[in-house]
Amino acid sequence: MSADLVSCVRLARLAQAACALSLTLPSCASATAAYATEGDEVTPSPSSQARAAQLTDGQTFALLATLDSAEVEQGHAAITKATSPAVREYASTLVEEHGKSKEHIAQLAAQAGLPLRDSSEARRLRERNADTMAMLLGADAAQFDAIYLKVQLQEHQTQLQLLDGQLQREALGATRDPVLRARSMTQHHLTLAQQIKGSLRR
């Protein structure tokens, strides 16, 4: 693949990621996403809710681990690039807590005898995270803190919608308690991000 083609692919992925996060890059009209965004609010599309309701317990464990992995990866980027001490501390908290959560999920799945099963939802989350990471790593240092917080506000709202979709399943089985714990942690992290964003504005 030529260098020019590689650059074009990277630019396209950055533009798509920025569009999904409601940033100011152009050419967002043709981008598609599983979630419709408005400001810092995120609303799941009906198809996303349906997909979440169809996951098995093994797929749900894998989905929770995928969410944790994405937060850890994004947190490491913020620890390296953020200029605000509050943002770096927040990122460190997410790395620690999501790292422990991922280990706990693996232990619970093993105890329940449930192998982690991939799903189209988990694959979409990995693709979304790859786009987000490309944007974060390519962000200008002066804008990084604002971009990272924007990402966290939207990602955690998206995660709450996904987790709520799982809690609506009639046969949640062994994943009910892990999903509830993940939802509680996600809500806490969203609240922290909102507080930090407000403090940086003052």
Describe this protein's structure.
With 202 residues, this protein is mainly α. The chain has a single domain (44-201), classed as Ferritin, core subunit, four-helix bundle (Ferritin, Up-down Bundle), CATH 1.20.1260.10. Helix content is 74%, strand content 4%. The protein has 7 helices and 2 strands, in the order αββαααααα. The protein has helices at residues 3-20, 46-53, 57-81, 85-111, 120-138, 141-167, 176-201; strands at residues 35-38, 41-44. A two-stranded antiparallel sheet has the order 1-2. β1 and β2 (41-44) form a beta hairpin. α1 crosses α5, α3 (57-81) runs antiparallel to α4 and α3 (57-81) runs antiparallel to α6. It is elongated and about 45 Å long.
Give the SSE map.
Blueprint: H1 3-20, E1 35-38, E2 41-44, H2 46-53, H3 57-81, H4 85-111, H5 120-138, H6 141-167, H7 176-201
Antiparallel strand pairs: 1-2
Helix pairs in contact: 1-5, 2-6, 3-4, 3-5, 3-6, 4-7, 6-7
State the total count of DSSP E strands: 2
N- to C-terminal distance: 47 Å
In sequence order, what are the helices and strands, one letter per element? HEEHHHHHH
SS class: mainly alpha
Q: Provide the β-strand percentage band.
A: under 5%
CATH architecture term: Up-down Bundle
CATH class: Mainly Alpha
**Looking at CATH, which topology would you report?**
Ferritin
CATH superfamily: Ferritin, core subunit, four-helix bundle
Portion of residues within helices: over 70%
Report the average pLDDT across residues: 79
Q: What is the strand arrangement across the widest sheet?
A: 1-2
From the spread of the alpha carbons, the general shape counts as elongated
Q: Ranges with pLDDT <50 over ≥5 residues? A: 1-53
Largest sheet: 2 strands, antiparallel
Return Rg in Å.
17 Å
Q: Enumerate how many helices there are, as a single number.
A: 7
Number of domains: 1
